Amino acid sequence: MAGKQEFYWRRLHSLLGVIPVGLFLVQHLVINHFATGGEESFNNAAHFMEQLPFRYFLEIFIIFLPLLFHAIYGLYIAFTAKNNIGQYGYFRNWMFMLQRVSGVITLIFVAWHVWETRIAAAFGAEVNFQMMETILSSPFMLWFYLIGVVSTTFHFANGLWSFFVSWGITVTPRSQVISTYITIGVFIALTIVGVRAILAFV
Ligand code: HEM
To answer: Binding positions for heme (predicted)?
Structure first.
């Protein structure tokens, strides 16, 4: 009984990592990429997102609650999982371990990022190009953001690979090899978009 319940919790954890949290991540990085077009371009894109109807509903039910559940249950998985890279030095075992490590780094990064942007906005600060420029003018914060974004894109792309396995989409070894190439492509593309956006503020 307990085993069956855990199965459903893990399925939910897996699903939420892609829909909606993963989709939100992609959308968020694309909006940030408007910074490469200059201050006005970024501010217009950010303003458009702030003006969306049902903003608070979307933020709470499409972003905050799914991410909170994924993060809390993710921490439980990360600290109870058996990392066996010592026993088997295979690529997939490394990816299994890195998925957990990147989850924890992503959690620290996202918590801080939400605090200094979205929570600050709730207390009256204006989130715009200038705000990010000020934050990223500190070399420490610049590296913190670069590591945080790369950790998040890795976590999502590598998570996509295991998501396809978890949901029975890639069953054969051949389909799993193809999926490895596709998710490496996703990782590279999202990392370029994310890093270019950060560097546009510097
Ligand atoms: C932007 C934020 C995040 C995104 C887009 C995301 C996405 C994903 C995806 C797609 C998976 C694969 C699901 C599967 O294996 O079927 C996954 C797995 C995982 N995530 Fe996240 N995640 C995020 C944040 C976090 C955070 C903050 C933690 C906290 C530690 C975390 C911990 C984990 C763990 C441990 C797994 C492995 C689950 C397993 O092997 O069954 N994730 N994530």
So the answer is: 28, 70, 113, 155
Question: Ligand 1 centre and the CA of 150: distance in Å?
Answer: 14
Residue 83 is predicted with a pLDDT of 66
Can you say which residues are annotated as belonging to the binding site for heme? Answer: 28, 70, 113, 155
Task: State if pTM tops 0.90.
Answer: yes
What pLDDT was estimated at residue 3? 83
Ligand 1 neighbours by CB, cut-off 6 Å: 10, 14, 17-18, 21-22, 25, 70-71, 74-75, 77-78, 99-100, 103-104, 106-107, 110, 152, 155-156, 159-160, 162-163, 166
Give the mean pLDDT of 162-189.
Answer: 97
**Ligand 1 centroid, distance to 156 Cα (angstroms):** 7
C-alpha dihedral, 56 to 37 to 117 to 156, nearest 10°: 80
Give the C-alpha separation, 44 to 134, whole Å.
19
Domains of the chain with bracketed CATH: 21-200 (1.20.1300.10)
The mean pLDDT of 51-60, rounded to a whole number, is 96
- pLDDT of 153 strictly over 70: yes
**CB within 8 Å of 117: residues ≥ 6 apart:** 127, 131
